[in-house]
Each structure stands twice: as structure tokens, then as C-alpha cells.
Amino acid sequence: MCLCVVLCWTATPVIRAQEPELTSAPQRITGGVVEEPDSIPAEIPSTVRLQSPIFRDTLPLSRMSAISLVAPGFSQLYNHQYWKIPVLYGTVGTFTYLTIDANKNFQRYQRQYDLLVAEYFGMPRGSSATAEEVQAAHDYYTDYVFPAHKQMNHYNRQRSFYFVGAAFTYLYFLADGVINYPHYTSSVKRATTLAFMFPGAGQFYNRSYWKIPIVVGAFTTMGFLIDWNNRGYQRFRTAFDAYPNDEFSGRYDQTQLSNWRRNYRRNRDLCIILTGAAYLLSVVEAHVDAHLKDFDVTDDLALRVEPTMLDMSGYISERNSGYPGFGLSMKLNF
Questions:
Q1: What is the rounded CA–CA span in Å between residue 102 and residue 111?
Q2: Which of 34, 158, 172, 271 is in Cβ range 3.0-4.6 Å of 102 for a Cys bridge?
């Protein structure tokens, strides 16, 4: 027993000496030949993270963006930019509070305006009314109806401005999470994700700055047309439902009011469809443009046609005794 232990102990250094030494650098076998360790990167660049220290697994860009849509600030948490989270919630919360407050004031003046308008239309007007009654109706509109309408529009503009501020801040931090994504991903995926989140963001990432006014202008125009046609539709729908006690009763009959209502609704729906098509077109454009950024368009791209000498030794026949032949060759450099 002791002899066996001594023999094993003395043979261990010999066995270890015959084993190949393990190196820290990886090796790759290609075609039966082991490549040198110097030709293979010994370590991964520090800019690429394989695993998040907070989350167990690395989240892909699309999944992180999807979670951020329903949980704002998640991308900043994942990217370890914690100081941005209170900025996000503070800004969005402030704009949201101001939007709710402006909406309450708007609804209050809207109810007041509707009551005043109903009272105004109930007053005697037109050719059948006396001069005093016409003047009284005019003064009532000037002193009560018009100021209420002015205040209603004022709070409506405030409500829209604050709502746009909250939406822009929300989308900005979504785009910030995509741009600062810590793991490696292609520029095409980043540009496409940004284009999905906010129109024009994909063009900005691709540095196609001249396209941004076109995209933003198209969406601004379509938004204005949708709002304008919707207001016209609401106005003529109210006039049609309240006919003949309405301001249009002296100028349009019920059939004309129905036609105007239908036209405004059709134009509004068409503008909504065109806006969706413009949105998809901007996403596709950003995706294709990101692909073309890596496309080689240097002067080395050329197609050359040159005369050449052909080896006809393999085509010996009765008419061909093996002499060389001549022809044309096309060379494509890329």
C-alpha cells in the first residue's frame, strides 16, 4: 500500500509535465489548423457588457424599450443613469398636473359658454325683432358670450401645450434609453426603434438632419388638418341635432347640414389614415437609411470590360486545333 502511494506521488510530476499548458487566450481551430492566440482578441472590449450587475440576464433593446413604454424610467434604471429618473417623473408629473388643471378650467368655461349660447339663441333676433331687442342681443353676446368663448379657447391652448410638453418629455426619455443602451446592437436596430418611438428621431440618429423638418412638418400639418376637420364635424353635428334652433338655421337647411357633417367626418378619417401611413413611411425610411449608411459607395465600385486571351486547349475539335482564342472579360470591383 505504501509503495503504491509513493509510486503515484513520484509519477504525478511526469504526468503533469506531459499535459499541455492552458493559456488565458482563446484558441480557434479552422480547417484542422490551430490559429495563433495573437490573432484572436484575448478579452472583450470594456464598452461591451455581457451581463447587467442588477438584472440577471441581459435584456435586448426591443424588450427594454417595450418595458419602458409602460414603466417610464426603466431604461434609465437598466442603463445605470439613476439621476435621470427623478428628472423624468418630476417633469412629466408637473406637466400632467398643469394639463389636468387647465382641462378643469376649460370644461368650466365650456359649460358656461354652452349655457350663454343657448340663452343668446333664445333671444329675439332678425328682421322680426325690434331695434332694442337686436341691440340687447348684441350687447349680451359682446358682454357675456364672447368673453366666455375667449376664456375657453385660452385654457384649451394651455391644455394642449402642457399635454404636448408631457408627451415630449416621455418620448424624449424613451429615446434617451435607446441611445444609451449599454450592450452592443446594430445602428439599424437603434434607428428603427427610435423611429417607432418618435417621428424624426430615427432620421436624427442617422444624421439625416435635412429630413427632420420634412417629417415633423408632415405630422404637424396632418395634426392640424385632423383637428380642423374634427372641429368642423363637431360643429355641424351639433347644428344638425339642434336644428332649427341653431345659428345655421337661417343659412342652411337640414340636408345641407347633414352633408357638411358627413364631409368633415370623411376628411377627418382620411387624414387619420394618411397620418398612420406617414408614420410607417418614416419608420421604413429610417430603417433603409441606416442600412445604406454602411453601403460602400466609394470610387472602387467599377465595371470594366477588357479584351482577354482564352485558353482553348480543352476544346480541341476538328475546327479547333488548340490555338488560343480571344474574347472580352468583365471585371466588377466592389
A1: 14
A2: 158
First vs last C-alpha separation in the chain:
74
Q: Which of 97, 218, 111, 112 is closest to 158 using CA atoms?
A: 97
Distances (CA, A) of 309 to 54, 199, 304, 322, 329: 67, 57, 16, 13, 9
* pLDDT digits 0-9 by tens, 254-268: 788 888 889 999 999
Q: What 3-state DSSP class applies to 43?
A: coil
How many other CB atoms are found less than 10 A from the CB of residue 132?
9
d(CA 82, CA 142): 55
Bridge partner residues of 327 (DSSP):
308
Which position has the grid cell 436596430? 189
Query: Is the peptide bond between 244 and the residue preceding it cis, with omega within 30 degrees of 0?
Result: yes
Residue that wins the pLDDT comparison between 60 and 22: 60
* Cell numbers for 247: 345659428
Question: pLDDT tens digits for 184-219?
Answer: 888 888 999 999 888 888 999 998 899 999 998 999
Helix then strand count (H, E) for the chain reads 10, 4
CB 233 within 8 A of CB 261: yes
Question: Taking a C-beta distance cutoff of 8 angstroms, is the pair 89, 167 a contact?
Answer: no
* Interatomic CA distance for residues 320 and 177, integer angstroms: 71
Cα-based angle 324, 325, 331 (whole degrees, multiple of 5): 115
Regarding pTM above 0.70, the answer is no
Determine contact, residues 175/198, Cβ cutoff 8 Å.
yes
Q: How many CB atoms lie within 10 A of CB 16?
A: 9
Q: Residue 39: CB partners within 8 Å, gap ≥ 6?
A: none
Per DSSP, the three-state class of 189 is helix
Quick one: cell of 131? 331695434
Q: Could you identify the residue written with the cell 424610467?
A: 73
* SS3 category, 215: helix
Q: Calculate the CA 230 to chain-centre distance.
A: 25
